[in-house]
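To illustrate the input format used throughout this study, we show a single complete record. The first block contains the structure-token representation of the backbone; no residue identities are included at this stage. The design step must infer an amino acid for every position from geometry alone.
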């Protein structure tokens, strides 16, 4: 699954409060040529949005974000999520996802985090919060002692269309998390055309 996501270079990270807006958002992303989205569990509607969107748009690769508990792992799988992401590395949650075959990327920002994830046999790690943790220089520093292990990274947090290429230039970066593509104000206003345009720009910028 993460190899499939790599081909896009960027995964929109979104939070929506209701199913209708979630479906319109997914339609906007598809219109912009970006058939992937990480629906975060920051809202109560997340599982319902994933379930509805996975049925409406089977071509869309939908993941669950901000997965913090084993219950959320279960709900994400039941809703039809194809992958899951977390801001931190909780061994209990990682193991729960692994037992059920759900591709899971835990969050890391220190060497100790990376080693914990390696012990759990994780293949992709979310570097979060990317810019606040030191950005590309910090990620390069982490790759130094751990790059030979074969792990990949997904930088998220402060990544923009202006700096995404700096991250994607690193071979160990599979893709970046794009929170700027569907910001909450655009979703609330229902500016789906703007979201489609931002998705289109991200696709163009991600080409390597």
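Output of the design step:
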């Amino acid at each position: 699954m993460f190899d499939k996501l790599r081909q896009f270079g960027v995964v929109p990270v979104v939070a929506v409060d209701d199913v209708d807006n979630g479906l319109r958002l997914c339609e906007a992303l598809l219109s912009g040529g970006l058939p992937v989205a990480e629906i975060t569990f920051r809202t109560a509607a997340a599982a319902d949005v994933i379930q509805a969107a996975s049925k409406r748009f089977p071509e869309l690769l939908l993941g669950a974000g901000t997965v913090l508990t084993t219950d959320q792992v279960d709900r994400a799988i039941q809703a039809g999520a194809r992958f899951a992401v977390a801001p931190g590395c909780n061994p209990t949650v990682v193991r729960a996802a692994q037992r059920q075959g759900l591709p899971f990327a835990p969050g890391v920002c220190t060497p100790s985090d990376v080693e914990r994830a390696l012990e759990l046999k994780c293949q992709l790690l979310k570097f979060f919060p990317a810019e606040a943790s030191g950005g590309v220089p910090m990620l390069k520093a982490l790759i130094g002692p751990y790059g030979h292990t074969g792990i990949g990274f997904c930088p998220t947090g402060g990544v923009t269309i202006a700096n995404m290429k700096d991250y994607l230039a690193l071979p160990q970066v599979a893709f970046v998390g794009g929170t700027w593509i569907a910001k909450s104000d655009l979703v609330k206003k229902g500016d789906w055309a703007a979201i489609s345009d931002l998705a289109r720009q991200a696709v163009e910028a991600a080409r390597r």
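Structural context for interpreting the output: The longest helix spans residues 192-206. The chain has a mean pLDDT of 97.
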